[in-house]
Amino acid sequence: MTTLDAVREELLERRERLASLAVTVRESQLVELLRHVDSALERLDGGSWGQCAVCLGTVEEGRLAADPLLTICLDCLSPAERKALERDLETAALVQAALLPPRRLEHDGWEVALLWEPLGPVSGDHYDLLRPAHAGEPLHLVVGDASGKGVSASLVQSHLHALLRALAAPEVSLAALLARANRLLCEVTLPAAYATLLAARLYPGGRVELANAGHPRPLVADRRGVRPVEGAGLPLGLFCEAEYATRDLQLAAGDTLLFYTDGWTEASTDEGEYGIGRAAAVLRRVKDRPLAELLAACRADMEEFLAGAPRGDDLTLLALRRTPLG
């Protein structure tokens, strides 16, 4: 199914839902809503869906993904409409930031630190951390990246946040958790809406269980050096019946595992891409520093590479370290 076919299907479903509300919504409201949906369907059939009605340019892809009824691009909004949109974005940014767990945590022999920098007011990067309910259970964390940018990506991110929180349970393997989340995400999002995700469980003895859904490979820094952790599955939301696998690592005291989104390794200039090779090199230099300093050094090396060029994506870096007990 193409993206346009998916939009058409969503609009038809929306029209059907509106028709079913005829007895609970005032007639004038219902007629207006149906008019907007029918107009969008006509634009789809006529080939003008996504075109700005004022300047005939293109309505922003991310905004269309969030609301397929839009007909005006950001440049053509009135001052009042722009202010209303800015207020909505400010509120959305506050809500999204409030959903994030603490950026520093020490628990049961583990230390975790996060650097999270949205490119705009809201982010498609996802991070969550769940403390165990009972002693001996693992600490659960995820890092992910929703497709697209801005508002549409943040909506997928928020939905994923709720899904994973609802599904996460110690008795459910990470492979089964990702399979369930994938199936549910497939059922409720457009084909173009998907997310990469890296999930981990940190056990008291230093064992790390990992499952990867199309996310960039994490880097492990231990006494043998720095290397990527192999293993990946399909991103969440692309194929409903995708299956996932887990792998285990055993970290000793002082070992560090670095998760990141592609806003770090795919940062680029006209000269090329930052890349996993340079990422591994900077981690090798700073792997023994306190985690907050380690993350700052990784970010600073990327900025040095960019040499003043702007970032093109959200940035998330998460470092976890096995700490000596006692």
Descriptive overview:
By secondary structure, the chain is of the alpha+beta class. The protein folds into 2 domains: 3-74, DksA, coiled-coil domain (Four Helix Bundle (Hemerythrin (Met), subunit A), Up-down Bundle); 99-322, 4-Layer Sandwich (Phosphatase 2c, domain 1), CATH 3.60.40.10. It is built from 9 helices and 13 strands. The chain has helices at residues 3-20, 27-46, 61-66, 79-99, 150-167, 174-188, 262-265, 275-286, 291-306, and strands spanning 104-107, 110-117, 125-130, 139-146, 195-202, 207-213, 219-222, 225-228, 246-250, 256-260, 268-269, 272-273, 315-322. A 6-stranded antiparallel β-sheet has the order 1-2-13-10-7-8. Strands 3-4-5-6-9 form a 5-stranded antiparallel β-sheet, with helices on one face. A two-stranded antiparallel ribbon has the order 11-12. A hairpin with a 4-residue loop joins β5 (195-202) and β6 (207-213). α5 packs across α6 and α8 (275-286) packs antiparallel against α9. The radius of gyration is 22 Å and the shape is globular. The mean pLDDT is 83.
Strands, helices and their partners?
Layout: H1 3-20, H2 27-46, H3 61-66, H4 79-99, E1 104-107, E2 110-117, E3 125-130, E4 139-146, H5 150-167, H6 174-188, E5 195-202, E6 207-213, E7 219-222, E8 225-228, E9 246-250, E10 256-260, H7 262-265, E11 268-269, E12 272-273, H8 275-286, H9 291-306, E13 315-322
Antiparallel strand pairs: 1-2, 2-13, 3-4, 4-5, 5-6, 6-9, 7-8, 7-10, 10-13, 11-12
Helix pairs in contact: 1-2, 5-6, 8-9
